[in-house]
Design a protein that fits this description.
With 332 residues, this protein is α/β, with parallel strands linked by helices. It has helices at residues 2-17, 46-61, 79-88, 98-101, 120-127, 130-138, 181-189, 199-208, 218-223, 249-254, 257-291, 302-308, 310-316, 323-331; strands at residues 33-38, 66-71, 93-97, 144-159, 174-177, 193-196, 213-216, 232-248, 295-297. The longest helix has 35 residues, at 257-291. The two termini are 27 Å apart.
């Protein structure tokens, strides 16, 4: 039911934008093109679900003239490296967590502000509307093409040391965060020793015990079996993290217009598909983590966490122009 609702919403958005599907005949004379799509997570992750859906839709709708090769597991580099590769044309496209994307267009970090979105539905309302599209379009300023928002989802805290029910419990814990200043400052305000680090490095650091914890959605904790090193999880849901289907302008500009239309629409549909899969899988994954012995706290004092991060809004609110005010107005 959830998947049908998401796909219906996606198709409705397409109609509203006046997009018409490319016809098969549009590709008769087209030279075959191969696109290299990369991401940094494994084949069990929602990013790979999105990538496979995108690959299949593009192949079908271009009569096989556009082939999408998938490169999971950071095989082509970490997320920042992938984005830089897209800018120069050494990587064609990817599904990238919003945090690293915001290093290229700072205003996109507005979505990362803690406790901004009360629900998935609220986030989708903003991301799939005027504000979200405006920010996707801003990526063109840095030689990137924003196509659609998939999701990383609501992020939660895990650690290997102790239960965390309030910010005081975070005191001194070494917590890996994405290489994004909003995340770094959020966890410093909560009392943790926030350590910005690429995900590939974080996995090793958790195994070696050089960091105590990290923050990510349930799906990431489950697919990477973080319960093997992280004994505690707190359902803080402190940040809703989008992910971006993004393409380098060098690759985008090589596509004829009918292929561009297919790629853009396929990205929107694949993103909606991945969101639906995430929503359906989270409850099951959480139960499996509990069954494995991971202690999950679902009644933390979230009001205390929200109060502690107020300085983050004071520091960053003005940096995002009017986007924060517009998002709040939209949500209200």
């Amino acid at each position: 039911m959830i998947r049908r609702q998401f796909l219906a919403a996606t198709l409705g958005a397409t109609v509203a934008l006046g997009a018409l599907p490319a016809a098969a005949s549009d590709f008769d004379a087209m030279e075959p093109i191969t696109l290299r799509l990369a991401h940094v997570v494994n084949e069990q992750d929602g990013f790979h679900v999105a990538a496979m859906k995108f690959r299949d839709l593009v192949a079908e709708r271009t009569e096989g003239k556009v082939t999408v090769e998938l490169f999971p597991n950071a095989s082509l580099g970490d997320e920042r490296t992938l984005l830089e590769g897209m800018q120069i044309g050494s990587v064609d496209m990817g599904v990238i967590t919003n945090g690293p994307v915001a290093n290229f267009v700072e205003e996109m970090a507005v979505f990362e502000l803690p406790f901004l979105f009360p629900s998935r539905e609220a986030a989708y309302q903003v991301l799939d509307g005027e504000i979200g599209q405006e920010l996707l379009d801003r990526l063109a300023d840095v030689n990137l093409k924003g196509l659609a928002y998939a999701e990383r989802g609501f992020r939660n805290l895990t650690n290997s040391q102790r239960p965390v029910t309030s910010p005081a419990d975070l005191d001194g814990l070494r917590i890996r965060v994405m290489e994004n200043p909003v995340y770094t400052d959020t966890f410093r305000e909560l009392g943790a020793n926030a350590i910005p680090m690429a995900w590939t490095e974080a996995l090793t650091a958790m195994q070696q015990g050089t960091i105590d914890g990290q923050e990510n959605p349930v799906g990431v904790v489950h697919s990477f079996k973080l319960n093997e090193t992280q004994t505690h999880m707190t359902m803080t849901r402190h940040t809703y993290a989008p992910a971006v289907f993004v393409m380098g302008m060098p690759a985008w500009n090589k596509l004829p217009e009918p292929a561009q239309e297919v790629v853009a629409q396929a990205a929107r549909e694949a993103a909606a598909h991945e969101r639906a899969v995430n929503a359906e899988m989270e409850a099951k994954q959480l139960e499996e983590l509990k069954a494995s012995g991971m202690a999950v706290i679902e009644d933390a004092d979230l009001s205390a966490f929200q109060a502690a991060v107020a300085p983050v809004y004071e520091k960053y609110g003005a940096r995002f122009g009017d986007y924060l005010d517009r998002i709040r107005a939209e949500l209200n």
